[in-house]
Amino acid sequence: MSKVMTAEEVVGSLESGMTLGIGGWGSRRKPMALVRAICRSPLTDLTVVSYGGPDVGLLCAYGKVRRLVTAFVTLDSVPLEPHFRRARQDGAVELTEYDEGMFMFGLYAAAHNLPFLPTPAGLGSDVMRVNPELRTVRSPYADGRELVAVPALEMDAALVHMNRADARGNAQYLGPDPYMDDLYAKAADRTYVSCERLVDTGDLLKEGPVQSLLISRAQVAGVVEAPNGGHFTDCSPDHGRDEAFQRHYAQAAGDPEKWAEFRERFLSGDEAAYQDAVRAWREEGK
Amino acid sequence: MSGTNGTSGTVTATRAEVCAVACAEAFRGDGEIVAAAVAGFVPMLGSRLARSTFEPDLLTTDGGPSLSAEAVPLGAAAAEVEGWLPFRDHLWLVLNGRRHVIMGPSQIDPYGNTNISCIGDWERPKRQLLGVRGGPGNTLLNTTSYWVPKHSPRVFTGKVDFVSGVGHDNGAHEIRVVVTNLAVLDFATPDKRMRLRSVHPGVTVDEVVQNTGFELAVPGDVPETRLPTAEELRIMRDVLDPKGLREREVPS
């Protein structure tokens, strides 16, 4: 059964007010083609769950985010994300701020249908102060330790970007780090995979070893072929981070006038128009 | 400012090199654990220098998820790889404990509480920074040190705006040292308040005190931070950082 869809169809299946998980990590293997499609859509009022990068930045810039659940937002080689900063400083987004490990345990809990998982990470820090809904539990064993009960990070849908997938939704990563993408897929009610290239099922193991088959079709509702769809984030080995373009993005994002130009030039059309505009921009720079 | 902060034999070490050796010293005695120096070039160089010299069992990365078979030069990918450490395993190691991390704080207080999340009120920050990242878990469960490339009262503040890394009064496992461009600080006081351990060659105690926004414990006799040996200088300059990235972080 083919689950191949377009990015527009994926976005069309989502609703305003949903909780949306986004895979990747910082400015690494982000499903940017799907994020750009959300920016073009009327969707709004989203709760976004993400180890944040430009996915969070763009969605903030387009006013799509009501609440963000994260441990950080960064562009990695550019430490701070200008759109996210502005949104926070303007009070435009609510924030649930967790430690990175707490966040992972929230994903694990949701993936395993557990209400929470205990961890000491977070204790003593202001994460406990700004998340007053967090509860602690005491170990029932001899150690009697107090631990944070990290609630399951339940999500209506998750978006991840992978290197390869087949039409059934089996998805493969070929880079050096799976990030938490399999956990998002297992945790969310439904998951959409965009990929650099669709391949026949029989060809998946020609691309990488069996351990690289990170996500099973049983967790996947739809697959989108999106070549360069992680741009400008790192999606090695298909493409590294486009550092020059990321710098261009970050400079534009810090200045309303430049951002209006950037948005008009790169983001006013569909994904094909975006990729064309990026190519033209790169040619100019040569 | 002179770049000649000290001499070791006939060779002159730069301030950045003194700082890198101080970061290397932070790992002395750590043995077979992961040295996660995420705060910049100088601590990264320090961790790899420690591994190349007096702490050969340390595990270090090439900046990505590969554990390199040997300490590799800054910016280089590992030619030979001995292991794999994706982000999820860093987070496992935080709980496991066999890890010593060097982070870079935007603010740090007398007990070693640190902030990388935001400046001002968290509800509506004046300046949003990174977010807490792994700070809460790292500091509660792993040995943690800090690297501050520009020692100033803005960073060394009586009270941090947000506790993203816990200090000794909030349950820290061990805040070992704070290495800055001016000095090395530790918490070897009865109440685990910050203390001036050593000043880098060419820096006065007064300079450090003036650039610290709270009362620092200052022993009667403050030694100088040790100088790199000739062999350490050779390794830094010829092997681990031939491009001199360390000098960009701490201009002489």
Automatic annotation (TrEMBL), chain A:
Q: Which UniProt keywords apply?
A: Transferase
In its UniProt record, a GO molecular function of this protein is:
transferase activity
The UniProt record lists the keyword Transferase: yes
Tell me which Pfam families the record gives: CoA_trans
Q: Which InterPro entries match?
A: CoA_trans_fam_I (IPR004165), NagB/RpiA_transferase-like (IPR037171)
- This one is known as CoA transferase subunit A
Question: What organism is this sequence from?
Answer: Actinomadura yumaensis
From TrEMBL, chain B:
Q: Which domain of life is it from?
A: Bacteria
Question: Of which family is this protein a member?
Answer: Belongs to the 3-oxoacid CoA-transferase subunit B family.
InterPro entries (alphabetical): CoA_trans_fam_I, NagB/RpiA_transferase-like
Note the Pfam families from the entry: CoA_trans
Q: Which organism is this protein's natural source? A: Actinomadura yumaensis
Output the SMART domains linked to this UniProt entry: CoA_trans
Protein name as it appears in the record: CoA-transferase subunit beta
